[in-house]
């Protein structure tokens, strides 16, 4: 249990082990150990007027914590409760760490300023050299979306397979968790127990989770973006969660070819290192409103894109193209 102790020095914290059996004496011993105030100089109370006491005689009026054997469990205390402490004498209270850079110490250089900014640039090379889909696996996924859903609502799943030492990813099966999809939204209703079971089956087959796959709807094909801001957020979340640098994000959509025939088209990307870093550190604005441009991801703070500070980043900056092949088991 953590108790907050307010004295003339301000508010400090003291940790108490085994609060159910601890006594006032134990508390005072921890104050001595953690705050450096000798037990014999301490006067404790739950009454804040203790801090207004002017003389030793005034301190004698505060007796609620004067019995050393009194159990703390008998007092109205909980994690985070505040107690008041008066003590005789002086002590050194450690202050916050102080870095003079940019203040009254050394001057901040241009390199310091640049280091403190988050720069968003295009990443040229993926960590995944290529991704190869098992033909039957890819066909089963797209067949349901095409024939049953007609690409009218979004569908998604996690890809399982292997990663070679030289960064090549093979996808051998796709696990599609319970989900709800609409024209623009995909909500995976993830069940941790079920995912653990799938992971265990994959391990037994010498495989692991290697990526995230989802479809874009026909209505999205009319919009001018590769991935929407919602899709970037979702892909970055799963990439960050995986901890796998070769993690692949695959997109399946319907495209009309030169002969005006609709073809199912697979594309593969990696979310860039800076995208994953921005997501992990909480830079993304996660509340997306209807009037937001889906081509742009909003940031909570300014980032540097090119030579300007901005809070809106073109989604394409976060995408690193991965070559696609196929194979058959």
From TrEMBL:
Gene Ontology MF terms: ubiquitin binding; ubiquitin protein ligase binding
Keyword field contains ATP-binding: no
Keywords: Phosphoprotein, Ubl conjugation pathway
Cited CDD domains: MPN_NPL4 (cd08061), Ubl_AtNPL4_like (cd17055)
Pfam families: NPL4, UN_NPL4
tRNA-binding is among the record's keywords: no
Pathway annotation: Protein degradation; proteasomal ubiquitin-dependent pathway
One CC-aspect GO term: nucleus
Domain Ubiquitin-like: 1-44
Any GO BP: ubiquitin-dependent protein catabolic process
Every MPN domain range: 130-271
Function comment: May be part of a complex that binds ubiquitinated proteins and that is necessary for the export of misfolded proteins from the ER to the cytoplasm, where they are degraded by the proteasome.
Protein family according to the UniProt entry: Belongs to the NPL4 family.
Protein name: NPL4-like protein 2
Lineage: Eukaryota, Viridiplantae, Streptophyta, Embryophyta, Tracheophyta
